[in-house]
Design a protein that fits this description.
The protein has seven helices and seven strands; from the N terminus they run αβαβαααααβββββ. The chain is α+β, with helices and mostly antiparallel strands.
């Protein structure tokens, strides 16, 4: 919890005003001490109350998206750590339904609402979301990973099963893959091309 509070402070330039969390494993002494030093109000949620339904609904959406990716790719539940990263990226690059309804129908000259990624990571400025979507390949699909981005180096590619963007790199520069030649999971390739073919479903 402290890591994410510090991360949000770096992004926003100001400490978080209110932090709502479960009253279980999240509510640690280190978290309380950090929030007191930053002036952040900690609001523990209560079990079986309607006030927490919004947060639980968001968690459920993330889990459902992750399970759908696992089912589509024919992967087992033990691969959740890869599907969760991609599911989170999909949600952050998608405009929420409530925001779309409030914004109304698109019209000529009307600016589209921003995605969660643009609001937080891009500091409220619109960006080319299509380019970010192109960086999300077919999870658990077969493909080829390239060490360099130039097409002239295609001979250096390796047959892979794509495991999604690398969590520690924000899904921008590197990708996780299972190398079929080396039979091990690696995070290194900058360029990945995948097909809608899922070996684990065959």
């Amino acid at each position: 919890g402290v890591f994410w509070l510090k991360h949000l402070k770096n992004l926003l330039g100001t400490p978080v005003a209110r932090f709502r969390c479960d009253s279980g494993e999240w509510l640690t002494k280190d978290l309380i001490a950090y929030c007191e030093s930053e002036g952040t109000t900690v609001v523990p949620s209560l079990a079986h109350t309607h006030a927490t339904q919004g947060i639980e609904r968001r968690h459920r959406t993330l889990e459902e998206c992750s399970h759908a990716l696992l089912s589509r790719g024919g992967a087992g539940e033990h691969m959740w750590e890869y599907s969760m990263v991609t599911a989170n990226a999909i949600i952050n690059l998608t405009i929420p339904i409530a925001v779309l309804r409030k914004h109304g129908r698109p019209a000529k000259g009307k600016v589209r609402p921003l995605t969660p990624f643009e609001l937080l990571e891009n500091k409220g400025k619109p960006c080319d979301v299509k380019a970010l979507w192109r960086n999300l390949h077919h999870l658990f699909g077969s493909g080829t990973g390239y060490k360099e981005s130039r097409t002239s180096h295609e001979v250096r590619g390796e047959a892979i099963i794509y495991l999604g963007p690398a969590p520690m790199n924000g899904g921008v520069d590197q990708h996780c893959h299972l190398g079929l030649r080396s039979d091990r999971t690696i995070q290194k390739y900058r360029t990945v091309r995948t097909e809608v073919v899922f070996p684990w479903r065959m």
